Amino acid sequence: MAEPPDTPAGLYRTTRLIRRFEERAVELVHKGVIVGGIHPYIGQEAIAAGVCAALRPTDIITSTHRGHGHVLAKGADPARMLAELAGRSTGLNKGRGGSMHAADFSLGIFGANAIVGANGAITVGATWAAARKRGADTVGVSFFGDGAVSQGVLLEAMNLAALWHVPVLFVCENNGYATTLTVEDAVAGTITGRGEAFGMPATTVDGMDPQAVLDAANDAVDRARAGYGPSLIECLTYRYDAHHTWEHKVRVRYRDNDEVARARSTDPVEIQGARIGAAERAEIDTEIETLLDEAVSFAINSPHPDPAGALDYLYATGMRARSGGGW
Amino acid sequence: MPRLSYQKALNRALTDELARDPDVFVLGEDIRVAVSNVTAGLFDRFGPERVLDTPLSEQAFTSFATGAALAGMRPVIEFQIPSLLFLVFEQIANQAHKFSLMTGGQCTVPVTYLVPGSGSRTGWAGQHSDHPYSLYAHVGVKTVLPATPTDAYGLMVTAIRDDDPVVVFAPAGALAVREDVDYADLRPVPLGVGRVHRAGTDVTVVALGHLVHDALAVAEDLATEVSIEVFDPRTVYPFDWDGLVTSVTKTRRLVVIDDSNRTSGMAGEIIATAAEHGDLIAPPTRVTRPDGAVLPFALDLDRAVQPGRAQLVTAIQGVMKDG
């Protein structure tokens, strides 16, 4: 990548990469290469691209069940990410985590997490500890959806972060639906009000615009690095695809096609693409297609893990559990 | 020789590890003033950066510790109430425990969860009297249950140094135990290594936690009738299966006394494994809490649902008759 991620071209590249990665991943779900399905991030790319462009390699993120975008934006290798989704031993997690648990600790990606709202407190602890271990101004980001703001443990985590001035960004991706339940049917008060209640700045931004997200993230990161503690950013966004790819087989009626079509008129890829020259955009698009062709090839040609090692890594100490078949 | 109390042993283990390793820190509720007595003196010696009083947010501070461990520290959490381990089951069983495997070994989660006063504390009623070590063993979280001050010291030190999450259940019924100990002899005790407190030839009594002391008292009372071997696994997960099989291979009779509810409690697993590998000559027996027990408040009711010495005597006499 030639350009830094926080430039217009860099933001476009990340946004486009996530979009095309997800589209390729959905194809691999339909082909049966990825089992278990995925929660596509399509439509929400601006948030991962914008927030992660404000971060350093040493900063920490945690992600959600809809986490591919965050992991890619923080710098994970798309080929090893795709291999992880396909359950291969070359994957980021050696095929042990899959779509909902992708992690790369060498890049500060402390894991996607499949329990809604669970990652907030983990982020606060990791960021608090990083400051003590490194003596550095490490920032942590907890990404979560609108469904998570009704989880008690996330609100507890916000309290701890504010109380102990931990430099964390709570980034809420409000796509309007917790699976099928609308925000209106789930959230009393406001999402920003939850941050304000703990005395932290909370702002709402256009989560379809990578630059708007980056600007808000920069403000929050600057504040965090300067020692002023956590912030909350609510990003208004929309999920174009299914909650999960099972919806491609089983129709679930909770929103109409017009609503999806309207949201597609504010496509983050198009918004950011319009900010760079056509030739540059075409070049980036071509590079991404080549990268993803290679990633798909790498994933489908990678070996499956050996079932004999199914419980490898269960204990960090190497302790072996008794087998289910005897002694 | 100094008399070492169980609580002092835990306090000494924490003090030694805080002094030895700058990555160790302690967090929990009311630990600065040491309401449970286990953290006495730590705040004054190590300060607010390493001894953190938390708000009453058990779920958040449990996962806060997971995060801190992922970033390279070794947190120790003190839980004032054993039943809080139900509240944080998601944070331990579904988060901390699963990170190593799910990330393909990219990280470690060296957190110690200390419950000083697990089980009935006499009159603390339904929501303060659980003893959920079997539950944690069931999900595969390393789980220790020391019966004596020296083992409390040694297993606490090992738990803190271990790279996986470890729950340390200090039974309320053992907190008053004291031992004559030369402090210079205190050392780490490995996980998964049991201890024969009393050798015998007729029957093995596997006793868990504070019930070790009841088993020893019963063994002494019955000494003229029956030769009882008292085996204390010390760690319930990983369990010292070799030690168990060695003992029952010798005695060929087994009684287990376990302060867990009967269904899916450790006693059932111990008996099953002994049956698979031990060549028993009499049906093994267990003394446990009843199925689904909720400890009632009134003292006689509380005691009525806890495993006790009288039941143990009956169980031992039963397996001797059957054999």
Summed up, what is this model?
The complex is a heterodimer of chains A (327) and B (323). Chain A is built from eleven helices and eight strands.
Task: Report on the architecture of this protein.
The complex is a heterodimer of chains A (327) and B (323). By secondary structure, chain A is an alpha/beta fold. In chain A, 41% of the residues lie in helices and 11% in strands. Chain A is built from eleven helices and eight strands. A six-stranded parallel beta sheet of chain A has the order 2-1-3-4-8-7, with helices on both faces. Chain A has a two-stranded antiparallel ribbon with strand order 5-6. In chain A, a hairpin with a 2-residue loop joins strand 5 and strand 6. The mean pLDDT of chain A is 96. Chain B is of the alpha/beta class and 323 residues long. In chain B, 38% of the residues lie in helices and 20% in strands. Chain B contains 13 helices and 14 strands. Chain B has helices at residues 6-20, 42-46, 58-70, 84-87, 89-95, 99-102, 133-139, 149-161, 211-221, 241-251, 266-277, 299-304, 309-322, and strands spanning 3-5, 24-28, 51-53, 74-78, 112-118, 142-144, 166-171, 178-180, 195-198, 203-207, 228-232, 235-237, 254-261, 285-289. Chain B has a seven-stranded mixed beta sheet with strand order 3-2-4-5-7-6-12, sandwiched between helices. In chain B, helix 8 (149-161) links the parallel strand 6 (142-144) and strand 7.
